[in-house]
Amino acid sequence: MTEQNNKSTSQPNQDGRLDHVAIAVSNLEEALIFYQESLGLTLLEIEVVEEQGVRVAKLDTGNTHIELLEPLGPDTPVGKFVAQKGPGLHHICIGVTAIGERLQCLKERNTRLINEDPKIGAGGAQIAFVHPKATGGVLLELSQPR
Ligand code: CO
Asked: 1 CA to middle of ligand 1, Å?
């Protein structure tokens, strides 16, 4: 992991970009019948993210993505979510360039976080979740792409 000068980067990784919208589903292949076949979205990849307990299908939606999340088991966060609430909108993700600094800033403001330190998410990105209590009721992921 190398430090980048995030002020002068030409990569489209500005803070505030909508990285993805994540939808929890019971069965990835079943959900793909709608999103890929009926709706015609392009499936970019399917990836198992052990650390988050999910299998993720990443769909291209132009300047952002939809991620379908299938739980790897009933005791995973997404497994519990689906058991309690059924399939549905799980979280939105905002891209950041320096996740450590952003988390520090949020902690200084006493923002309620689910992850105090970055975890590894899909694509090897560094991610952290902010509690819905702090965001207007929506689970919010911050992601610094690899
Ligand atoms: Co996500």
From this structure: 20
Query: Considering its fold, how many domains does the chain have in total?
Result: 1
pTM: 0.86
Q: Does residue 7 surpass a pLDDT of 50?
A: no
| Tens digits of residue pLDDT in 56-112 | 999 999 999 999 999 999 999 999 999 999 999 999 999 999 999 999 999 999 999
CA proximity to 91, closest of 10, 20, 39, 5: 20
Q: Are 129 and 77 in contact (CB under 8 A)?
A: no
- Asked if 99 and 128 count as a contact pair (C-beta separation under 8 A), the reply is yes
Output the CA 65–ligand 1 centroid distance in Å: 10
Closest CA to 141 of 74, 62, 49: 49
Residue owning tokens 């929506």: 138
Which CATH number characterizes residue 123's domain?
3.10.180.10
| CA 62 to ligand 1 centroid distance, Å | 17
Asked if residue 2 belongs to a domain, the reply is: no
Do 19 and 88 touch, CB atoms closer than 8 A? no
Q: 59: CA distance to ligand 1 center in Å?
A: 12
